[in-house]
Amino acid sequence: MLSATAGLRKALLAPVITALAIGGIFVGVYLAAFHSPAAHHQPLGIAASDSVAARTELSLNNEAPDAYVFYRYADAAAAHEAVTHDEVPAVLVSDHAGLRLIAAGAQGPSTISSLSAAVTQAVGHPVPVRDVRPLADGDARGLSAFYAAFGVVLAGFLFAVSSYQIAPRLALFARVASMLAFSVASGLIVALIAHTGFDALPAPYATVAVVVGLLAWATAAAAGVLLRLFGPIGMPVASVVLLILGNATSGGILPATFLPSWLAPLADVMPPAAAITGLRDAGYFHGEHVTPAMLTLTAWGVGCLAIQYILDRTAARRAHARGASTAARVVGQLSA
Known about the structure:
Number of helices: 10
Helix content: 55-70%
Strand content: 5-15%
Largest sheet: 5 strands, mixed
Keywords: Membrane, Transmembrane, Transmembrane helix
Protein name: ABC transporter permease
Transmembrane segments: 12-33, 145-164, 176-198, 204-227, 239-263, 293-311
Structural class: alpha/beta
């Protein structure tokens, strides 16, 4: 009777507690990240005389200490090269043609508008903006890569959960084969929808398919390991790590330089951030960071599968040892 009562209590309370915890973490993380974003070490280039550059840097630092990291460029041509190769999102240029902000709109409207407002305040008058890397017509707000990545992360999470619910003891090679099929299909389908169907991701179709496929693989592998490690609480742990922290720090809504200090480091290592960086740079910035993004995603996939292999081997050895011990006891009893 007591056991039945305890079981009923657990069945009633566990879903409530789990859902409230995940919901609370989601609200807390997203509000902490986006309720009042401010720049932290935001790169900004300056191509001007030393006196103009020094005055601008001093004014910006006085207004918001530690908000910006400044990079000097020789002239407008060097500034254009830096912006179009994703070294900095914008460069303030002052030369015979006047004062202007050379910017990459592909960095996102929020980034460019915040830099434009800061520069305007620093120099004391409006500064015209020249967008040398505008967003694609099919991606007017610069959020397509984020939505694509979010959908793939969600699909990878659901794939891992379904896989472990349907076949919790499936052999690793079979699980890997299923995961690879899911990843390849995800890459091809999402690239077909986002690149070909809506023209929202200007990167080549093959690049989109590969990056998205690697993201699907990394997410499914990571979720699988968390389910394997944490058992019954693996699902909420995976949802917090991948769906909440991963997407909040992806840079799809705001760049990592606008995240609070305790969240910003995750933007360098989480799969969604790597995928969004790869998709963005492949489409707008000559593929400057595509290779590191792919390596990050590959490292997640390979690393999580390696952990899964070690866990399976360890469990198999323990099962074999228990079986041998049981057999020895049976033989001993029969001999006696």
